[in-house]
UniProtKB/TrEMBL annotation:
UniProt keyword list: ATP synthesis, CF(1), Hydrogen ion transport, Ion transport, Membrane, Thylakoid, Transport
Gene Ontology CC terms, in alphabetical order: plasma membrane-derived thylakoid membrane; proton-transporting ATP synthase complex
Pfam family, one: OSCP
Membrane topology, as annotated: Peripheral membrane protein
Family: Belongs to the ATPase delta chain family.
GO MF term list: proton-transporting ATP synthase activity, rotational mechanism
Species whose genome carries this gene: Oxynema aestuarii AP17
Function field: F(1)F(0) ATP synthase produces ATP from ADP in the presence of a proton or sodium gradient. F-type ATPases consist of two structural domains, F(1) containing the extramembraneous catalytic core and F(0) containing the membrane proton channel, linked together by a central stalk and a peripheral stalk. During catalysis, ATP synthesis in the catalytic domain of F(1) is coupled via a rotary mechanism of the central stalk subunits to proton translocation.
InterPro entries the record matches: ATP_synth_OSCP/delta_N_sf (IPR026015), ATPase_OSCP/d_CS (IPR020781), ATPase_OSCP/dsu (IPR000711)
Protein name: ATP synthase subunit delta
Source domain of life: Bacteria
Chief location of this protein within or outside the cell: membrane
Subcellular locations according to the entry: Cellular thylakoid membrane; Membrane
Length: 183
């Protein structure tokens, strides 16, 4: 665990989780965290604006209010304002990820990062979820997908430190290794 994670991300995520649990809002705040994380991952402009020390805190708050609108849970909105006031808004993406990790632990859910050559159908996602459940003792599986055309076909499933490479590229690589070791 890095120093930033131990001293900033974890305590803020834990504090938000405590508020969420006390107010029976863990899932709603979880949805807020997913949305904010996705927005930060896709919008470099927003990320740069929040990280810019020359942008006034009031301007950052106004932008966050505008982005969240009425959809954000009021605890999430208050939390964002607190992060701005304390100069911790630059860690928002990491705090979102950490909160989602805590929520998965609470719900006995594992995160499966699935990389495939093409978009997976809902049936294929269900099959991946079932496979991950059988590998772990998780009650639920949350699937995060990525597309990588270089895989040619198949999937790579990552759950924690465990990786299952069922991609065509991986199979070809393994055949190549076997062929080179037998010569």
């Amino acid at each position: 665990m890095s120093i930033v994670q131990a001293e900033i991300l974890e305590p803020y995520a834990q504090a938000l989780m405590s508020v969420a649990q006390a107010n029976d809002a863990t899932e709603q705040i979880g949805e807020d965290m997913r949305s904010l994380k996705a927005l930060l991952e896709t919008s470099d402009e927003l990320k740069q604006l929040l990280e810019n020390p020359f942008v006034k805190n009031e301007d950052k708050k106004a932008i966050l209010r505008q982005i969240g609108g009425e959809d954000l849970q009021h605890f999430t909105r208050n939390f964002l304002m607190l992060l701005v006031d304390r100069g911790r808004i630059i860690f928002l993406e990491g705090i979102c990820s950490q909160y989602l990790n805590l929520l998965r632990k609470l719900n006995q859910t594992v995160l499966a990062e699935v990389t495939s050559a093409v978009e997976l159908s809902s049936e294929q996602q269900q099959a991946v979820g079932d496979r991950v459940k059988s590998m772990t003792d998780a009650r639920n599986v949350e699937i995060e997908t990525r597309i990588d055309p270089e895989l040619i076909g198949g999937v790579i499933i990552k759950v924690g430190s465990q990786v299952i490479d069922a991609s065509l590229r991986g199979q070809l690589r393994r055949i190549g290794v076997r062929l080179s070791s037998s010569t």
